[in-house]
Amino acid sequence: MREITVEQIKEQVVPLCLTAAYDLPQDVRQAIARAAQLESSSLGRSMLNQLVENYSLAAKERAPICQDTGVAVFFVDVGQDVRISGGALQEALAEATSEAWKQGYLRMSVVEDPLFTRKNTGVNGPPIVHLSLVPGDRLKITIAPKGGGSENMSRMAMLKPTAGLTAVADFIYETVLSAGGNPCPPIIVGVGVGGNFEVAPILAKRALLRPLGQPHPDANYAEFEKMMLDRVNASGVGPQGLGGSTTAMAVHVEHYPCHIASLPVAVNLNCHAARHASVEI
Prior knowledge:
Order of helices and strands: EHHHEEHEEHEHEHHEEE
Strand order of the largest sheet: 4-2-5-10
Distance between the termini: 14 Å
Number of helices: 8
Strand content: 15-25%
Number of strands: 10
């Protein structure tokens, strides 16, 4: 049994949060740069080139890529041979989140009561934490800050199992089309199919972490992703919703077995600033 202390976790997670806020992953930067060369609309090309410049300035000046620095969403793979000592994992992540948002002067975007008082917590937390138990003695932590603009455009549906592929494809397309420019395209479309009511949205959010351009390992799903990307980009929504041929950089689908009477589908949209960073302890 390998021991990892909460202090070790906090030491790693604070800079991880700041990296996610300042440094867009290289695969996303490359995708935007490619889109700027291929975009059919002159206005769209201008917008994409501005995004490229914004990413460079954020990294150079150590400033947030976007003013909406988002809710801290963590995906944590906990090795079954790991023992966490000195406190609770989720408390350590909450403390690290608060410290990082204060150090980086990042916007605090979390309210403690969503319905009545809507008072800001002042610590950008508690964060949202998804835990998975995996083999081994390592702890892998991924943060994916999620802003309100794209998150608000996401949707979930419990389709009839007889609805089939066409209904799933139409649901994805209609979600993107109705969102328009609100999620700050070019977007990444994360899709979760199967599981149940709570699993599909998590699958959709996990799908956003896959490197851009990496197809699904299953040929059927890979072909479906390509077909949906072509369909979404033919919608004409374009960069920032101003028209053009680049509405999405990728459509990523993840799936899980489900009940014979169900066909859960969730679509989680991510803006062009697809922020995430990982560390393994």
